[in-house]
Specification:
By secondary structure, the protein is α/β, with parallel strands linked by helices. It has a single domain, classed as 3-Layer(aba) Sandwich (Rossmann fold), CATH 3.40.50. Helix content is 41%, strand content 24%. It contains 9 helices and 7 strands; from the N terminus they run αααβαβαβαβαβααββ. Strands 3-2-1-4-5-7-6 form a 7-stranded mixed sheet, with helices on both faces. α2 runs parallel beside α5.
Length: 217
């Protein structure tokens, strides 16, 4: 299991999500399409209404979910990622697809620069929450920027996922890698989103991941 965002520390994100990994992820997307959690989100988002308007993709990675949603009816998008390598890869893919007029990718930590972005019809966070220890502020800002719906994927809060994440974090510590991943309480995250006035309309799961879609009541 891997996580496709950054922690709050820029240096840790740059190390974890390097040019080599970005190239590998982009090649995999080109040959195999979006990953499992992105597919779950793509299946769930229409349950909040026909995809249209503006997208804000937080932790956009190589842009897989962004490009797929543009193909499904969204007209413009902004992707934000703390890894400069992923932003470069996504920007190059946008140029290859002829999508530079519809999408831009921004390098930065969304929590720190959220005020720079307009509200969007759809806000997505695919494998992002697991990379933030302080998930509450991230979800608050995401919900505040969502005009219609928020879609996110995250590790399931079950013992075997917590154990595997713990093993990964110990291995990183032994390698002096400061990056960490987190398994947050599903009910606690749901509480943060619901208090912003959104309701759950879709939840899909694999053995290790969940993908939820919320819309404004």
């Amino acid at each position: 299991m891997s996580c496709c965002c950054s922690s709050g520390v820029g240096a840790a994100a740059e190390r974890q999500f390097s040019e080599k990994r970005a190239a590998k992820d982009l090649a995999q997307y080109r040959t195999k399409g979006p990953g499992a959690t992105a597919r779950l989100l793509l299946a769930g988002i229409p349950k909040a209404g026909q995809p249209q308007g503006r997208l804000l993709d937080i932790g956009s990675g190589v842009g897989a979910l962004t490009f797929e949603l543009l193909e499904r009816g969204l007209t413009e998008a902004v992707g934000v990622d703390l890894s400069s390598a992923y932003v470069a890869a996504a920007s190059a893919e946008a140029a290859r697809r002829g999508r530079t007029d519809a999408v831009r990718f921004v390098h930065g930590d969304f929590v720190g620069i959220a005020s720079q972005f307009l509200a969007a019809d759809i806000v997505t966070l695919d494998r992002v929450v697991c990379c933030y220890p302080a998930y509450e502020r991230l979800l608050d800002e995401s919900a505040r920027h969502a005009a219609r719906c928020v879609a996110l994927s995250y590790p399931r809060d079950v013992w075997y996922v917590r154990t595997w994440v713990g093993v990964q974090n110990v291995a990183r510590q032994l390698c002096r890698n400061p990056f960490r991943t987190f398994v947050h309480s599903t009910s606690a995250m749901e509480h943060v989103i619901r208090r912003a006035g959104l309701e759950l309309v879709s939840r899909g799961c694999t053995r290790t991941w969940c993908a939820d879609v919320y819309r404004h009541v």
